[in-house]
Amino acid sequence: MTGSPLMPLVAGLVMAAWLGGAAWALVTGLRMRRGARILGTQAEKLQQLLDSAPALPMMVRPDGRIEAPERLADWLGLARMPNFLADLTGADKGLTEDDAAGLARDVAVAQKSGKAFTRAARAQGSSRTLLIRGAAATSALSEPGGVILWFFDATESQAEIGRLGQEAARLARAFDALSGLIEASPFPMWHRGPDLRLTLVNSAYVKAVEGHDAADVIARGLELVETSGGRSPLALAASARDGKAVVTRTVPATISGERRMMRVVDVPLGDAGVAGYAIDIEETEQVRSAFKRFSDAQRDMLDLLSAGVAQFGPDRALAFSNQPFQRIFAMKPEWIADRPEFDRVLDRMRETGRIPESRDFPGWKAERREWFTVPEGVAEESWLLPGGTHLRVVAQPLPDGGLLLIFEDRTEEVQLASARDTLLRVRTATFDNLFEAVGVFAADGRLNLWNTRFRQVWDFEEDFLATHPRVDVLAEAAGERLTNPARASLIRELVRIATVERQQRSGRVALKNGKHYEFAAVPLPDGNALFTMLDISDSRQIERALRDRNEALEQGDKLKTAFVENMSYELRTPLTSIGGFAEMLKEGYAGPLEDRAVDYVAAILESVARLGLLIDGVLDLTQSQAGVLPLELQPVNLIAMAQEAAKGFTDAAATKSIDFAVDLDPSLGGIRGDAKRLRQAIEHLLEHAIAGTAAGGRVLLHGSGDDRMARIVVSDNGRGMSAAEQARAFDRFNKAESARNGGDRLGLALPLAKQFAEAHGGSVTLYSEPGAGTVVSIELPR
């Protein structure tokens, strides 16, 4: 062997193999060492991770033995971890008996069925809450029947869960309350889901759309408002959702069969959809419309006021001004339309000279600016403008922070007050210097005012009057100065009637000094009574003289009337004899007469007839003046009577070539009266017309009437009458009438016609113009 040449080779191969194995073992050992170091590091990391984990493991073997970290003993309140599951509970330590028993049952179930479980447990004597989750252990961790338990410290989680539970309960109650509030809401409310379909409606919504119930409305998708501005409710809700902004609109809607104005609001709720509600603003709109009408009417009314009115808003800009304000301060409407600020308005007033002169205008303006916040509520000033204008300024702060200004032009009032003061002084001086005695008694009967004449008439002392005596005291003192002291009571009674009964009375008294006074008590508008006394001593004497003279004149007039009446009768007797003898001579009882004698007799008869008519007229006038004109009243046909009267003047008119026309309308009719006197009245008018009309003239007799009056008119185109002649036309002894008739006899035609017409309750009217003619009209009542 030693000498064999293969031995070194074999030895070399063995050594090489050994070296190779050693090298491989070294490399493998180094690799395993490095792997063990890595595994140890990972184990340490896993242990640290496990120690810092919020959950601690516990391995329960099939025989009930347990393996767990010592930290778990601290969680369970134990000094050290026991060996068996049953030892997790004890006296005031570990789990409670109920939790330990329950955990044992859950572990037993997991061992048999492999079912996982979760249980909450509490350690005795500790506020820690543990959450235990168990499951069957894998074969890598334990033999079959093992259970792995994980203990979680759920103290904070349970507290949070409890808080969240309370919050959830609170939110549930709030949701229930909100749901009840929405349901009880008097106006429609609804909710739309993300797809904008209705998911919730309240009873008011159901009632508004006349649905059966909420489910029916949601199922049918009944909308409260169909369209608004051409857009559907869904489109408007989508606009609110997409724009993430509240959409409000005012639209009409039919609610319970009535057309109402509604304000509809869509509120985006993000992913929860869109909520909406509708408020009935019909009454609000009516109130707003009424308020606008009231505001417009108030502004129209303010424009009609004489006082200037300006209103400033909370921003102190001019919000309104009426026409008098613009006129007083010479402000143009276009300038006011820009809503100038308060200070600018004052500047404008100063430019136009419409504010009082002030050396410190900025300070003056600052004081006026305080009107907006005046604590007293109202500020009032008087402005005297450079032109002499007086303005009363009232500043009223408004509740909204604005200001109301009223400018009243009191220039005329101030002037009137000055004039009134002057008038009062003049009246006082006049009152004190009146010739009449004047006293003013108050409603309680006391003497308030008196003039000097009043004191002098009654010879009262000034001190006595200064006590303002009552009327009874005054009357008693005045009685001593009267001729008849009992008449003093009349003064007291008249003052009482004037102050209490508000009636005017008068009377007369005579004083012992021979003076006579007429007094009167007159009620005044202020409730007082004015007592006046006028000295009528002279007028009494004149009155007495005039009365005596009037009695004498009346007696003379009676004598004259009797004389004329007697003379008329006395003249009629010889006139009748003259007429009778002339008739006998005319008829030839005294033998044949020569032609000249026949003319003389005819002239005598004509004169007798004229004198007889004159005597009858004078007698009629005398009787009418005395009021004893005899009338025989009976129905009278005025048409027939006027025709008969006209026949008597046909020849006279033809003799003077006068065109005599008669125009009697059937409406003239008749009246009740004296036919003889009425005929004489017409004859007198015709006589007057023919006598005053020249040859070739025209005379018209016209008659007409109505239900109330009959009218007879006689007109001519003669020479007419002047104004002076018309004034004396109805005078009984009118010379002008005699001249008109062309003779010397008295003009009795018109006076007699007037007397006869007035005796029947009628009237006579004369119209005449020189050179144009005369119209005389008789109107007789039916």
Which fold name is given in CATH as the topology of the largest domain? Heat Shock Protein 90
Please state the oligomeric state of the protein chains shown: single chain
The description of the largest β-sheet is: 5 strands, antiparallel
Shape: elongated
Question: Overall mean pLDDT score?
Answer: 80
Pfam family, one: PAS_7
Keywords: Kinase, Phosphoprotein, Transferase, Two-component regulatory system
GO molecular function, one term: phosphorelay sensor kinase activity
Protein name: histidine kinase
What does this molecule look like?
The protein is elongated and about 255 Å long. It has six domains: 53-153, Beta-Lactamase, CATH 3.30.450; 185-280, PAS domain (Beta-Lactamase, 2-Layer Sandwich); 304-415, Beta-Lactamase (2-Layer Sandwich); 433-535, Beta-Lactamase; 553-630, Helix Hairpins (Orthogonal Bundle); 631-781, Heat Shock Protein 90 (2-Layer Sandwich). Helix content is 48%, strand content 22%. The N and C termini lie far apart (203 Å). It has 782 residues and is an alpha+beta fold. A hairpin with a 5-residue loop joins strand 8 (189-192) and strand 9. It comes from Sphingobium boeckii.
Compose a concise summary of this entry:
By secondary structure, the chain is α+β, with helices and mostly antiparallel strands.
